[in-house]
Amino acid sequence: MENTSPLPASSGNEPFAPTTVSEDTAFAPRTDLSHLSQHAEAIRRELSKIIVGQQALAELLLTAILADGHVLLEGVPGVAKTLTAKLLARTLSVPFSRLQFTPDLMPSDVLGTAVFLPNKSEFEFRPGPIFASIVLIDEINRAPAKTQSALFEVMEERQITQNGTRYAMADPFVVLATQNPIEQEGTYRLPEAQLDRFLFKLHVGYPTLEEEVTILQGHHAGLGSAALESVQAVLSAETLRELRQQVRRQHVEPHLLDYIARLVGQTRAHKGLYLGASPRASLALLNGAKALAALRGRDFVTPEDVQYLAPHVLRHRILLTPEREMEGQTPDDIVQQIMQQIEVPR
């Protein structure tokens, strides 16, 4: 939602004696996360200049960026899906590109094409808009299967292959895609193989009454363009790579790894599911939980981190049976059932 109003050593001979450890020392973090917290807060502050509410959405988008994952944003028109993604890219000092997917879009329009140079009598590859660090794809489900398939390799392997030559993407590389869940005319259903490449699928809902009043007040004040220009880049690509390395070193207890595996494994045995989640979902849940814990100031993952992210990681990776769909159940309902069935480690 738019808000156009500005915001504010010993010798070894001594007798053994037990070591006294203070409570502060016992629970001191093994990793200093203050640097990460400062940058995360700076990004939140920049987003809050324009976006009203949506704190949970901002946290999940930051989680995906730190976990090096792509995000699919789903919501009706006008709830600031594109605006949020665009502003997030604006807070990062990295190359940004935007693609509007349409039924006539060709793979070369996304990846690039080889151009013949008569003076050299050879072909030269001209990179397409996918060659950016943050790529925003509007209405991703409007492109046909041939164009959708062009994203398979680049989203998973961070590279494309053209005429036998490999071209690597920049680091970082994140795809933020939007789609409308209501309008189906002129759209193409995303294949499961492509959905599986998104770390999260996030639902973007309507604002509350108070938030919508704030949106109206900001527009009425006539500060829209000034507020948009006030959003500044606060995180460089080099710093983001350093923060990602820190996230990868987050501590995870062995029983939590077992918990993640059992949660995802249960989707393959649930009677209400026609298709369960793959091991890629387990990796997504692990990486996402590490990043979320870091954003919340902890250098260790808890079961609550896993439970909070499970619907966002699994909802687009499972398929309900026709019977469950007729009963009106949703993927989120099945994920909640599975979490209730699996014992939570302590």
TrEMBL record:
<dbReference type="Pfam" id="PF07726">
    <property type="entry name" value="AAA_3"/>
</dbReference>
<dbReference type="InterPro" id="IPR041628">
    <property type="entry name" value="ChlI/MoxR_AAA_lid"/>
</dbReference>
<protein>
    <submittedName>
        <fullName>MoxR family ATPase</fullName>
    </submittedName>
</protein>
<dbReference type="InterPro" id="IPR027417">
    <property type="entry name" value="P-loop_NTPase"/>
</dbReference>
<feature type="domain" description="AAA+ ATPase">
    <location>
        <begin position="67"/>
        <end position="208"/>
    </location>
</feature>
<dbReference type="InterPro" id="IPR050764">
    <property type="entry name" value="CbbQ/NirQ/NorQ/GpvN"/>
</dbReference>
<feature type="region of interest" description="Disordered">
    <location>
        <begin position="1"/>
        <end position="21"/>
    </location>
</feature>
<dbReference type="InterPro" id="IPR003593">
    <property type="entry name" value="AAA+_ATPase"/>
</dbReference>
<dbReference type="Pfam" id="PF17863">
    <property type="entry name" value="AAA_lid_2"/>
</dbReference>
<dbReference type="InterPro" id="IPR011703">
    <property type="entry name" value="ATPase_AAA-3"/>
</dbReference>
